[in-house]
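Figure 2 data, in text form.
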Amino acid sequence: MPKHNKRQERELLELEIELARLKLAAGELQRRREQQASRQSENIGQELLSLAGNASAKGLALRAVTLPVSLKHRLLVGAAFLAWEYWRNQSKRYR
């Protein structure tokens, strides 16, 4: 009987070790996913800023405001354009 108990204890310890390894691997995987999501959101933000800058430079935002669409959409585009211009002018002051 004592050998049977020692064998069971050994199996239990091995299972606990495997559980610890799996928890570490899961934590590492979660950390990598969070880093990847963070990088993707940064890239999306940079792309949006670039697109807004290009639209502003080419006058596309002003043309979009004057398109024959609903007033609600024109106001939203106009507000976004004004916010972009304000932010761009503020950032130029601090350079």
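Caption note: Residues 2-58 form the longest helix (57 residues).
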